[in-house]
Amino acid sequence: SWTSGRIRAGGHPGPHWGTGFVLLCFLQTEQLITLWVLFVFTIVGNSIVLFSIWRRKRKSRMTFFVTQLAITDSFTGLVNILTDIIWRFTGDFMAPDLVCRVVRYLQVVLLYASTYVLVSLSIDRYHAIVYPMKFLQGEKQAKVLIVIAWGLSFLFSIPTLIIFGKRKLPNGEVQCWALWPDDSYWTPYMTIVAFLVYFIPLTIISVIYAIVIRTIWTKSKASETVISNCSDGKLCTSYNRGLISKAKIKAIKYSIVIILAFICCWSPYFLFDILDNFSLLPDTKERFYASVIIQNLPALNSAINPLIYCVFSSSICFPCGDQRSQDSRMTYRERTERHEMQVLSKPEFI
């Protein structure tokens, strides 16, 4: 567990430490296979996204954010997942105490960054839809949002340098572990982390996309009313209704996928850890099995992000020949329709 480094939801030795340790050893192979699969999908998937963006001649603000997300996810694979794999092979933590603190610090930085970059992207999409004119004039906003996201990530992770260190556990292992004087410190610590990493960002993202969807819906209705008064009202209204409908559906799909992916990957992790810290879960084998699965879900978010980009943003995964060939075959009206859809709903909404 990147935020706690425990054996119980990542876990400290509990009252049934012996049983938990036997179960942990029994599941080593399954855990390693899972981690290797997550690592390969994360690195390969995000590398494909980065390579596809690099091949594009024209870079937009959207590709800038996608690049930031792919970079964050790639480092998550290298720093968080790979180090977990190495430690499971070595058993004891072999490196000095300073390395322990730095690695844990970077892991938590990436934990925050993966969420805050997503929040920054949501804010940027909000301005693109709600305030399109200001959006076009504010090219520096994207970079400012990313700087703030990474700045907060580095700032909020500073306590990790103090909390974690190299120590000997009750079972004799030497690990990079939390140096709490008392286990009761876990409850306020994990509660604060849960709010900073999950609950507050989720609230911001949900509110932003709710406003965005409402704005697109309102604009579509207003546009239909205006266009219906033109000389060729039937044709204009029909054309506009089709355009806005596609944009509206596209925006809703992107919004739902983003929010659901975030919720599915992070909710079980933080809800389980909070319940565990407040001692609301029974100390059973079932709870341990659940913790083994749940603690890998945050890494899953970094692995599935590239799939989401490719499903909803074909221009990212296929930026070359086929796309140009398709563009050349499009009529002027089709090209105009696609351009207006991009302005209205930003197809690469994520």
UniProtKB/TrEMBL annotation:
User: What Gene3D superfamilies does its record include?
Assistant: Rhodopsin 7-helix transmembrane proteins (1.20.1070.10)
Transmembrane region(s): 33-54, 66-90, 102-123, 144-165, 185-212, 251-272
Q: Which GO terms describe its biological process?
A: positive regulation of release of sequestered calcium ion into cytosol
> In the UniProt record, which is one GO cellular component term?
plasma membrane
**Entry keyword DNA-binding:** no
Domain G-protein coupled receptors family 1 profile, by residue range, is 45-309
Q: Membrane topology type, per the record?
A: Multi-pass membrane protein
Which named protein is this?
Neuropeptide S receptor
Annotated source species? Equus asinus asinus
Traced from the root, the source organism's taxonomic lineage reads:
Eukaryota, Metazoa, Chordata, Craniata, Vertebrata
Source gene?
Answer: NPSR1
